[in-house]
Structure to design on (1504 residues):
């Protein structure tokens, strides 16, 4: 069909799979004037690429991203590579007028992010950063409640992102342990999410003060020969002051034994509070001071009603959805924005703003002092 | 002081301890015109009696309940004995014009219960059955919400009472295993509570159909010589129809591995629902259809506010109370009723009504059919 | 491809959508020698059929199930119709040597179920009943733990299935309210699941005693003209004795205000216990008496590890899956069984056994007495 | 009796009540060679004093703490005053050879704390700081598990202490809002607890970096005439490095809408993890990597078994205790230590160490940089 949006994806690992799944499912549940066409997949490793393309039905293959980006049968470039490649691919894609979806964190640092933003704006293409948690229905509901004024003045925004897959001493050295390939470790991977969420929900951070730690300094190489030196952080904590006076904290770690993908938000405000946990992503806890005095309590909203964001298209109430559905929501909105020529969020500006906070935290951890966030 | 209420207690085991504790604490927190005086303790076992009286400060001792009941320096007889003795002690106490607090279940059967009720009424004394869970603040709050009309028409009242102390094959034979001493096993001990609660909260049961089971038929005697035959039920389940059309279920068992004192109520009604669990007795879950549509959820009320029943006398919000506090509340209300000459509930009529249901369940289990509950 | 399994589906509503989704996703995550081909969709309503077929990519359409079942380009007939049509379609499909997947409950009654079983056996085709909850990873893990002997002797199997969509008085009259079309109401729809699960996990039921209730007798017709008389149950409760002596309870209701799709299992046994709740289907609670004494407690297993059933093909630990994934698992196993010519479970015999229990409960509710389940 | 320990208490408010309750209950449940005698109560406000002494049975009264401390019929001085009086009373008490129990935080600053420690050591009396949460049974169990080596290397110690009583704009100005009377606000009151607990459980803090905020700058005076300027913090957050390399965070706030007395600990270590929440103080969550792989999960230990710390003297399993019981445990241990002439912990050295951390956090918040904690 002429009205399809032809997608080229770079990267075939975890995120490549998650995005592929979303492209394949989105039209079964969301009404899109222009559905996606899985046109080309790209990876430097040919055997990974073959398996990936066959499994998810990508029509053609490339082992060079430069080549794929320059093809004229691609409308949208989807970047699922290690972080170090985000900027070059995105800038190249913008130059050939491709729309761009880029995994988070947007780049290795804010300078790169700004180049990406400038390139995308100049090319006048749609640009989006894959902060998929904005489209967890429970968090989209949180956004609604806040926009309706139900929270009032924000006092606290506390976020943790706990995983535990590095507690195992035998977990091998991978690219995420190398600061040159990832820019950072847990920080860029996990705090990128938790830094985007307050920007989505409650406002801008003014200043940060952080600390990092590497608990395990050496890890076995995957080829079985020796070890690699871990240079990327295992954990980063930081305190934050928001522009409106709220106080916040952020803790990301891959050493939270027993927690698998535990992203918890706690938002305390003058009229109400919200609690969220990604391991129970179909639920949102809401406490309201406008409930009658002796009946106040955290209510656990099962966010599966047709009145809840994104949920009218799925299943009846109580039939929960999974983590992967957030990508379907994200890609649905992106494809619609491309068709309609409208902006879509979070865009590269959001990616840049997040990266500025991440960079400031790193600087703060190095210099052991508070660092202000640029005003824009 | 002349205005003290002189208490005589019979039985020095678990319930004797719980009641003693309540008598000793009640005036520290509740304003009573006539506080209790711990006048006399009674037990057939002199060594148990001595230790008990000394620990809790009972002023005098008796080894014959007949003797204690006939003393004229006793105002209130508190019955904490095996069930088989409830009726004779209560009737004797009434005959000498003593007020009476009796542990649950009120008696071995409804006939005995009626004798107790008749005796107490004839003597015009205060009479109370120690269904202490009516005075868990969370359940008193539930009662308030129901009386305020917030639940509407009741559809379901489901109760479980799970314990696990008999799962251990080596747990010895005690009086509770002997149907002649207890009247029943888990049924009278645990279902007595859960049958009283719907009467307190939602209304009368019309008919029941039950089943029972003894999982372990023989248990070692405490003297180490042989085993005793278990004749009292390990578990009793029953279905119930309420007069107003609600459907209910009740399950009591001492074989719920991992559950220690887990009494859960689920009340589903046309406007709202309530969930309660005794292992978290400071909490009440409340779901209301009058909340805004997309914000509905079970809210967990931490029942520790000064606006909550019984709680203004204890500690600031969030400082939880324990299981034993329910007896302090109960005894506070009883002593006040004695002083003021007013009725107090649950009384022996409530005990009788509960016993009628318990009896009908036993009959139903034996005859394998539904049994109607007497109208009064 | 010659090795595809050509599927014809009858019914385009809720279950039709859930199955379609599964056929479209299964090969993206499971390695199947013969993937499904969505060959034909059937519905008596042409406009529903068109929309359905287009959305999910069904290649051809039929408005007569008789016609579709007789086509020779169909290998597998998938029955997602109202219950009254299960038997005729299944028997016809068997006669033309089609494999069959049938939604639950298998039929209107056990007689119908036996006809289906006989027909399928005679035709030597694969036959499966869509008790999809057997393939919730947490329940498949429960099965593993039980097979490893970790539970010991079963004392109790308690199940509830709570929904609340009928509490709304304005909810219109639909086919599920008509006993002639559904055979029963909440009972066949919800207890069918909860009756299959103990058969999967712990063993056969010996006798049952049940009660039912219709709370709202009349509902508005969807055309806005008058009301329809509700003849199917709103709720059914029953007690059960298992052959091995365990005592069980089952409660299904659509009047559990606040509960959306709350299927809770509680299994108490001599060595361990298990708790499950479908609204948090990625979790299984497990209590083991073999843990050290002072460390015993219900542990909440987040069933998302690659070592857990079905989960190695999805996402990393902590990235939860949804309700719909159970159908992917089910259909994966069915397609594999078809390819390999092996039996697959739950089959029509399981459907029959479940139906015998459901029938006995209805008879029990009518006759107000216990009813034995046939031995086979 | 000659063997009683004669107690003199200073302060009759919240803590005065909690301690009084403990003195009155301790002998009913714990076997003490020398039980407490409630000899004298002291408060500058005579009417508060009269009501307090009468309610809890204090035998004599004083309105001057200097006078009470100098009485020779007092063995133990219990300090429940505003923080500014802790040091002078404790030093005076030591000089007259009284044993001392002091509420937390120990003093206005570390200098004062050291004076108290020196005075107590010189007088060779028992000295204890009322960090009562060390004697929550669940936390005493946590200590046991850590001492048994079940946690391994500690990676993270994260604590929050959330309350919400200051969210109400109308809450009046009290001494806790005046930095001159309290030394600090939420910090000294709440972080004092959470700073003591890692010292009890996992080790010493090396350096901290904090931030504070006052959200509401003016509050109405209790006399109704005008407002008072809030000078004590509403919230203090800080990051911490432990000597052994662990990374920690601490957040105390009185603006956590919906949280009443929510003190949550999360301890993540190489072999296991522990989670605790004071609002459910009878429970401890424990995750162990030594459980079998597919069975790992956070287990919720109901800390009410007779094998659990302090619990063998109370009630059967599952019968929960309340917040106030922690004081009974504390005072039992203190009285025993006095009788036996043995040290008891947490003592004034623990109070000093805690105060050093608190002071460093304040300095850090003022100077916006990390501050090292003194080595001893």
């Amino acid at each position: 069909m002429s009205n399809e949006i032809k997608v080229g994806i770079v990267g075939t690992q975890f995120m490549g799979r998650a995005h592929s799944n979303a492209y394949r499912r989105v039209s079964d549940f969301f009404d899109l004037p222009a559905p996606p066409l899985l046109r080309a997949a790209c990876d430097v490793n040919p055997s990974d690429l073959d398996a990936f393309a066959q499994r998810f039905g990508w029509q053609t293959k490339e082992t060079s991203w430069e080549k794929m980006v320059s093809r004229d049968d691609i409308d949208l470039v989807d970047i699922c590579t290690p972080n170090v490649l985000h900027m070059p691919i995105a800038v190249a894609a913008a130059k050939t007028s491709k729309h761009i979806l880029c995994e988070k964190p947007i780049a290795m640092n804010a300078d790169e992010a700004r180049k990406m933003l400038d390139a995308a704006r100049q090319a006048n293409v749609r640009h989006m950063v894959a902060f998929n948690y904005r489209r967890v229905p429970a968090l989209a509901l949180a956004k609604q409640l806040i926009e309706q004024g139900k929270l009032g003045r924000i006092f606290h925004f506390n976020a943790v992102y706990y995983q535990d897959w590095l507690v195992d001493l035998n977990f091998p050295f991978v690219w995420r342990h190398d600061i040159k390939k990832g820019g950072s470790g847990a920080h860029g991977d996990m705090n990128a999410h938790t830094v985007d969420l307050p920007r989505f929900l409650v406002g801008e951070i003014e200043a940060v003060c952080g600390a990092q730690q590497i608990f395990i300094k050496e890890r076995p190489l995957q080829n079985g020969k020796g070890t690699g030196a871990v240079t990327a952080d295992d954990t980063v904590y930081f305190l934050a002051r928001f522009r409106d006076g709220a106080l916040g904290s952020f803790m990301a770690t891959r050493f939270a034994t027993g927690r698998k993908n535990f992203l918890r938000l706690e938002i305390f405000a003058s009229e109400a509070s919200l609690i969220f946990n990604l391991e129970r992503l179909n639920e949102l806890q809401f406490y309201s001071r406008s409930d009658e005095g002796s009946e106040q309590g955290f209510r656990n909203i099962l966010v599966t009603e047709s009145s809840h964001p994104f949920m009218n298209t799925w299943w009846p109430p109580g039939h929960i959805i999974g983590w992967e559905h957030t990508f379907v929501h994200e890609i649905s909105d992106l494809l619609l924005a491309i068709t309609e020529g409208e902006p879509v969020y979070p865009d590269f500006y959001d990616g840049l703003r997040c990266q500025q906070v991440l960079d400031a935290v790193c600087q703060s951890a190095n210099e052991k002092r508070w660092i202000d966030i640029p005003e824009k």
